[in-house]
Specification:
By secondary structure, this protein is α/β, with parallel strands linked by helices. It has 5 helices and 5 strands, in the order βαβαβαβαβα. The chain has a single domain, classed as Rossmann fold (3-Layer(aba) Sandwich). α3 links the parallel β3 and β4.
Length: 150
């Protein structure tokens, strides 16, 4: 069921956070969304460290929506660490960012991003982008099985 699927939203901009959550709700994508606001917090969540040390490591997100321009640790470094750890190397990561810089796009794909989406400035376009993103990654796409990944 879609509502059982956890999404990790890594976003430091409160407006973009609210827009993303609103787009999921408006499009009836009733997923659990955990929001973290910097790169270090994202890694702590994924690897059950720091403030998330008591989090169930088996309750992994099925999708990470990753901004690149983050405090403490940027999204490129977060992606690098996600892909370098066997526990998260197959985790779908969609870069969702305002950057349209060629080097950010190239680096994201070199590090194993599954998709790169530049956030549209227009509200309706943003809502449609999140709707399509959610339908594809949460309904159509087959995620890797948890069992056997070590």
């Amino acid at each position: 069921m879609a509502e059982d699927k956890l999404i990790l939203l890594v976003e430091d901009n409160p407006d973009d956070e609210l827009l993303t959550i609103r787009a999921f709700e408006k499009n009836h994508l009733a997923n659990r969304i955990e929001v973290v606001r910097d790169g270090q917090e994202a890694l702590d969540f994924l690897f059950c460290e720091g403030n998330y040390a008591d989090r169930d490591p088996d309750d992994m997100p099925v999708l990470v929506l990753l901004d690149l321009k983050l405090p403490k640790l940027d999204g490129i470094e977060v992606l690098r660490q996600i892909r370098s750890d066997p526990r998260t190397q197959l985790l779908p990561v969609v870069v969702l960012t305002t950057s349209r810089q060629e080097q950010d796009i190239i680096k994201s794909y070199q590090l194993g991003a599954n998709s790169y989406i530049a956030k549209p400035v227009d509200f309706n376009e943003f809502m449609e982008s999140v709707r399509q993103l959610g339908l594809y990654w949460l309904v159509i796409n087959e995620i890797p099985p948890r069992k056997g990944i070590s």
